[in-house]
């Protein structure tokens, strides 16, 4: 009897039990109510427990499976339990989250035919001729959404493809934020289906898809919090699929489709830009296989640049106060950046020196990681992407858990290689982010949370740097 056959459903059942705990706690997280009484510690504890279950699930997954094991019931039962976790979270209120309120306002602005980048929410509220003015004055739900938008003095920071998703959610449910949850939960399920297809194309065990299906970070940040990063993750997997030789698209057609998909991913979340060098260098390293493959890098770059440039030009056509604020002073759950910031302050350097330093290191890593690693196969590309995304997350001044969703989408495709071990730990460790609300709600000194955050990042750096079993 093979232990992994039963280890996966048992671990998935444990994760589901923790998610049921989230459901029971969720009424205490209603917007604007009882901040000091919110069970944040209990929520984070359940997340950590679910993370332990994910680790046990990962340990139970096979490296290779027979045809009989592919058709077995155990991993399918675990998959169903992961889907059940999404159903459990479907009726819950947002847990420590307010981004979907901004999504609704942006989506309604797009549906009204207005430019979401032109005015801030505060300016929309004061406008007499904005297309949303009648609704904001006559619809109580619309006024409530406007009141709940975080940082209403700033322009939106979400790129055009994300705006399209917001508009779809607003079309589905009007001024009710739950339409955003329906949209991104649908993307989540489509991503899971794409993962299963990719695993089949790459002749990898379908059981590895459980690392996404049962991941507590995915369950929280998509099924509950409805974050747009899952859409970026979906397009990233599409870009990888386009380069899969088993599809027989040909190097040129595959490169064009991959570039277009990668551009759409950037137009969901700008940090996907860091992954472009990995794709280009991977194609250039394969240039020895023929001139068509060599031309693939140019075609991918062109197919990427055209939609991306057009979308970013529109986004930046108005004063980007949101992006300026994000780049200038946004900081939470930072690790390496926090250390570097203290160092630059001690040396009397300008306030932006730490941000510039982290950006420089992340940019250099985005080029040097794929440049220095040898190989030509698709697993190498996936591994390189993991390294780049993880490095970027660790250097972030604002290391939000949902920024890890594209990294976790890659985890099932290479769970034993490269940065996968740290990515698996991140699925649980990122829950520390939610502890940052405790000092604000309870008038506590933030020093303890700072030390916990440094410990969180320290564990991830250790997993990243210490030797272990790695295969490409």
How would you portray this structure in words?
The chain is an all-alpha fold and 472 residues long. Helix content is 66%, strand content 0%. The protein has 24 helices and no strands. The chain has helices spanning 3-25, 40-60, 67-70, 74-89, 99-111, 121-126, 133-138, 140-148, 160-173, 178-201, 210-213, 216-224, 229-242, 251-266, 276-285, 291-315, 321-329, 336-346, 353-372, 378-395, 405-410, 420-429, 437-442, 447-465. Helix 22 runs antiparallel to helix 24. The radius of gyration is 22 Å and the shape is globular. The mean pLDDT is 91.
What is the secondary structure topology, with strand pairs?
Blueprint: H1 3-25, H2 40-60, H3 67-70, H4 74-89, H5 99-111, H6 121-126, H7 133-138, H8 140-148, H9 160-173, H10 178-201, H11 210-213, H12 216-224, H13 229-242, H14 251-266, H15 276-285, H16 291-315, H17 321-329, H18 336-346, H19 353-372, H20 378-395, H21 405-410, H22 420-429, H23 437-442, H24 447-465
Helix pairs in contact: 1-2, 1-4, 2-22, 4-12, 5-8, 5-9, 9-10, 10-13, 13-14, 14-16, 15-16, 15-19, 18-19, 19-20, 22-24
Rg on CA atoms, Å: 22 Å
N to C succession of SSEs: HHHHHHHHHHHHHHHHHHHHHHHH
In whole angstroms, the N-to-C terminal distance is: 29 Å
Total beta-strand segments: 0
Count of helical stretches: 24
Q: What do the pLDDT scores average to?
A: 91
Major sheet summary line: none
Q: List low-pLDDT spans.
A: none
Give the helix/strand class. Answer: mainly alpha
Helix content: 55-70%
- What proportion of the residues form beta strands (DSSP E)? under 5%
């Amino acid at each position: 009897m093979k232990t992994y056959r039963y280890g996966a459903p048992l671990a998935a059942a444990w994760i589901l039990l923790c998610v049921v705990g989230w459901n029971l706690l969720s009424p205490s997280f209603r917007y604007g109510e009882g901040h000091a009484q919110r069970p944040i510690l209990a929520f984070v504890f359940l997340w950590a427990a679910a993370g332990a279950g994910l680790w046990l699930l990962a340990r139970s997954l096979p490296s290779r499976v027979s045809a009989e094991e592919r058709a077995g019931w155990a991993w399918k039962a675990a998959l169903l339990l992961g889907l059940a976790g999404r159903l459990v979270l479907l009726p819950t209120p947002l847990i420590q989250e307010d981004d979907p309120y901004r999504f609704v306002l942006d989506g309604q602005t797009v549906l009204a035919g207005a430019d979401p980048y032109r005015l801030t929410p505060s300016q929309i509220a004061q406008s007499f001729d904005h297309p949303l003015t009648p609704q904001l004055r006559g619809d109580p739900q619309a006024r409530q959404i406007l009141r709940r938008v975080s940082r209403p003095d700033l322009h939106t920071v979400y790129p055009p493809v994300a705006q399209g998703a917001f508009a779809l959610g607003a079309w589905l449910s009007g001024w009710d934020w739950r339409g955003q949850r329906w949209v991104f939960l649908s993307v989540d399920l489509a991503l899971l289906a794409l993962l299963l297809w990719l695993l089949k194309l790459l002749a990898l065990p379908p059981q590895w898809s459980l690392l996404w299906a049962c991941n507590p970070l995915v369950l929280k940040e998509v099924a509950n919090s409805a974050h747009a990063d899952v859409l970026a993750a979906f397009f990233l997997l599409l870009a990888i699929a386009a380069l899969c030789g088993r599809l027989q698209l040909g190097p040129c057609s595959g490169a064009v489709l991959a570039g277009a998909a990668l551009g759409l991913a950037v137009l969901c979340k700008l940090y996907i830009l860091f992954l472009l060098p990995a794709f280009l260098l991977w194609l250039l390293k394969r240039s020895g296989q023929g001139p068509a493959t060599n031309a693939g890098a140019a075609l991918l770059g062109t197919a990427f640049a055209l939609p991306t440039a057009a979308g970013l030009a529109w986004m930046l056509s108005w004063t980007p106060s949101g992006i300026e604020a994000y780049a200038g002073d946004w900081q939470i759950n930072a690790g390496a950046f926090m250390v570097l910031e203290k160092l630059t302050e001690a040396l009397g350097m300008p306030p932006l020196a730490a941000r510039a330093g982290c950006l420089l290191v992340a940019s250099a890593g985005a080029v040097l990681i794929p440049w220095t690693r040898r190989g030509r196969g698709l697993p190498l590309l996936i591994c390189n992407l993991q390294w780049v995304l993880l490095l970027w997350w660790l250097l972030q001044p604002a290391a939000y858990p949902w920024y890890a969703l594209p990294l976790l989408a890659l985890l099932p495709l290479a769970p034993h290689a490269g940065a996968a071990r740290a990515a698996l730990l991140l699925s649980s460790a990122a829950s520390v982010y939610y502890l940052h609300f405790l000092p604000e709600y309870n008038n506590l000194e933030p020093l303890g949370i700072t030390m916990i955050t440094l410990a969180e990042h320290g564990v991830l750096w250790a997993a990243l740097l210490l030797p272990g079993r790695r295969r490409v």
